[in-house]
Amino acid sequence: MRAGVIGTGYLGRLHARILTEMDLQAVGFVETSDAIAAEVEENLKLRRFESVAALAKEIDCAVVATPTITHFDVARELLEAGVDVMIEKPITASADDARRLIDVANERGRIIQVGHVERYNPAIVAAAPLLHDVGYIEAERLGVFVARSLDVDVLLDLMIHDLNLVLSLLRQPIVDIKAVGIPVLTDKVDITNVRLEMANGAVANLTASRVSQDRVRKIRFFGRDAYISVDTREQEVKGYRLSGRAIEPLDITVEKKEPLRAELESFVECVRNRTRPIVSAEDGLEAVELAVRVAAAIDDAVVKRWRHA
Fold it and tell me: Which tens digits make up the pLDDT trace of 108-158?
């Protein structure tokens, strides 16, 4: 199997490095920055291609790690050239573009996997089978400010991970959304708190910030008879179960592994066996659609605040 990478910024270089260590042929990459390209060529001994079209002729699958606003154009060109793609999250900047990509993939018989890497995190993998009758979810995804992914707001930059986790782990329609969010260091929303109510009455309270002092990646699940706490950054899971009137700890084993490697291994396996990815294009679309609804709720909250000012 022959693989390539489009975009070798921070994440793209990680993808490129892992691909060179896997059981496949890492053919090359496309990068607009001469300085970054020279570094990748030197460190990873990969060939730089002048365009997506040139690389597409030489590969079977590709990772798209370009800025979000370019995901649609890059992925469409690859799909139309017969290349399977793993697109970094979010799948696209808009739901309409995601639907169009899905149509192209279906027409060409190609695979799209979306880079919601938390789904491949060993801590989430270990916790998922333990989640039963979850009534409340609390998630914190906090990061320090970095000058990347600023073409989108914090919803598509960070919170998209937790939106995908809520949708994929609970499989419940979202019936009500309340949200607040403000710009801090950019002209887009940089910090937000969201309350999602699901059709079965469960509630998720999510906080995401890209202007915090610390990096936090925690999500807690409260069920009828158990509490599961997951730290995806440290790949740790703690759980407690109610037994009568006593609280007993759960014995949970996490087999630690680089999540990005697990994600890429899963993608390659899907390409080889022509199977549906754990995070499909439809999953990516669903997360973007929910992010759009949350953004609308934030706008509504702003309007109400101004009316009462």
Answer: 999 999 999 999 999 999 999 999 999 999 999 999 988 776 788 999 999
Q: Give 112's strand partners.
A: 85
List the structure tokens of 106: 């279906």
Burial 214-251 (b: 16+ CB within 10 A, else e): eebbbbbbbbeebbbbbbbeebbbebeeeeeeeeeeee
Please tell me the total number of residues recorded for the chain in this structure. 309
Q: pLDDT of 95-108, one tens digit each?
A: 999 999 999 999 99
Distance between CA atoms of residues 195 and 176, nearest Å: 8
CB atoms within 10 A of CB 37: 17
- Neighbour tally for 18: CB within 10 Å: 19
Helix (H) or strand (E) run with residue 60 in it: none
Residue 147's pLDDT is: 76
